[in-house]
Amino acid sequence: MATFKAKDGTQIYYKDGGAGKPVLFSHGWPLDGDMWDSQLNYLAERGFRAIAFDRRGFGRSDQPWTGYDYDTFASDINDLITTLDLQDVTLVGFSMGGGDVTRYINNYGSARVAGLALLGAVTPIFGKSDSFPQGVDQSVFDGIRDGLRKDRAQFISDFATPFYGINAGQTVSAGALTQTLNIALLASLKGTIDCVTAFGETDFRPDMTKIDVPTLVIHGSNDQIVPFETTGKLAAETIKNATLKVYDNAPHGFALTHQDQLNEDLLAFVKSL
């Protein structure tokens, strides 16, 4: 099992396949690197090196008690990039993972980065604040934390319905729903809860001004988790060199429901860099 050691000693799992220009994937909450299996195989079979890691506290990585903040997540990505000596890497972040890769560029620059893809991402800002009143109300994040503390398994099981848009006509197999729950329950409860605070309260608007590489923003028009109008649309308007693709009627979890379309769009993007 491949792991690397983060600066604080945390062992972080990653999978690495294929050869060619590297593409590094940062997963969403409350999943792990396995959410990217379709994309990893698709790109690796087409001449790219595809890498995905399990965020600290999730999947097969260590579960430290602390460190669930975006500066630490960015540091972990930097440690992985330097450990593997990646050059001209395309960073792909889904949902909260979009914050990881954006903070990486803010903190460490883009010297090793060829491009950026933000997929259903929480950037530039997700939660409501005095300076961003159109964001998701903080009571929503309070409810998520309370649900996790009370009955995490049932909360995640229920969360899959809006996540995949099952209540809006999307079809997801029973096996995929089982896998989603199994992946989520591998994670640290503490890390799962702390990440809700991280993505609900972190303001990436200053980070967005540091993005100086070609950027692909993809969002579902029917995202019930991370609303398009206040995240993906705003990100595409804020980032220089950004291209926006909106998947019609797609839910938050479009990496599964629209995997063929996403695979083709990612391949075209990385080929263009």
UniProtKB/TrEMBL annotation:
Q: Which residues form the AB hydrolase-1 domain?
A: 21-258
Q: Which family does it belong to?
A: Belongs to the AB hydrolase superfamily. Bacterial non-heme haloperoxidase / perhydrolase family.
Keyword Hydrolase belongs to the record: yes
- What Pfam families would the database entry show? Abhydrolase_1
Q: What is the protein's name according to its record?
A: Putative hydrolase, alpha/beta fold family
Keyword field contains Nucleotide-binding: no
Q: Which UniProt keywords apply?
A: Hydrolase
Concerning PANTHER family, the annotation shows: HYDROLASE, ALPHA/BETA FOLD FAMILY PROTEIN (PTHR43433), NON-HEME CHLOROPEROXIDASE-RELATED (PTHR43433:SF4)
GO molecular-function terms, A-Z: arylesterase activity
Q: What EC number is given for this enzyme?
A: 3.1.1.2
SUPFAM superfamilies referenced in this protein's UniProt entry, alphabetically:
alpha/beta-Hydrolases (SSF53474)
